Amino acid sequence: MLYAVDLLGTFVFALSGAFQANRHGLDFLGFMVLAVATGVGGGMIRDVLLGATPPAALQDEWYLLVCLAGGMAVFWAAPPIARRWNRVLVADAVGLGVFAAMGAARAAAAGLGPIGIVLMAALTATGGGVVRDLLVREVPAVIKGGFYATAALLGGVAFTGTAALGLGEAVAMTTAAVVTTGLRFWAMAHNISLPTGRRFPHLPGDDTGDPA
């Protein structure tokens, strides 16, 4: 069951990557690249950092095939998918929770401490989106609002807290997934975002003229 949900989350993430390619008018290869980068990018970066090579996405090629399917679906049928985007967002929230839980579990198995576990949870869940946005020269969406990465971070915190109680990995993963997904649903329902910093018209170093 977890494997099927993981593949579903990968597919939905791939859809978001392909829609980014659509926004920027990329060609077919661009659709595939962004779909794959978004779908499995976070997990691959996590595995490399943890020394788990080859990454899981290269050992089980179903992940890559699912990403390619998502890219092709948007390339040929973007309007019908866009009309059902609310359903995609629901699936995306579930995928975010599953990815955060799996990232936390992989980090714990590798012997990382609480901070490392929380970071790996967030990286697994959001790393692909960061790679996607950087490839098209945009500020990553996860640091612009939407309570997205924050939900994954708190899911990682929930994992570490549950594991510390000795309740077992399965309970810890379930807790992390539920907390992450629940927070994402709550944020979407109430349009919740973290506060942004005050913007200044002129920052130190902006003036490149000769001070003399």
Topology:
Layout: H1 2-23, H2 28-50, H3 56-59, H4 62-83, H5 85-109, H6 114-135, H7 149-164, H8 169-190
Helix pairs in contact: 1-2, 1-4, 1-5, 1-6, 2-4, 2-5, 2-6, 5-6, 5-7, 5-8, 6-7, 7-8
General description of the model:
There is one protein chain. The protein has 212 residues and is an all-alpha fold. The protein has one domain. The chain contains 8 helices and no strands. It has helices at residues 2-23, 28-50, 56-59, 62-83, 85-109, 114-135, 149-164, 169-190. Helix 1 (2-23) crosses helix 4 (62-83), helix 1 runs parallel beside helix 6 and helix 5 packs across helix 7 (149-164). The longest helix has 25 residues, at 85-109. The protein is globular, with a radius of gyration of 18 Å. The N and C termini lie far apart (69 Å). The mean pLDDT is 89.
Shape: globular
Alpha plus pi helix count:
8
Q: Which residues form runs of ≥5 with pLDDT under 50?
A: none
Largest sheet: none
- Domain unit count: 1
- Helix fraction bin: over 70%
Index terms:
212 residues; mainly alpha; 8 helices; 74% helix
Short summary:
This protein is mainly alpha-helical.
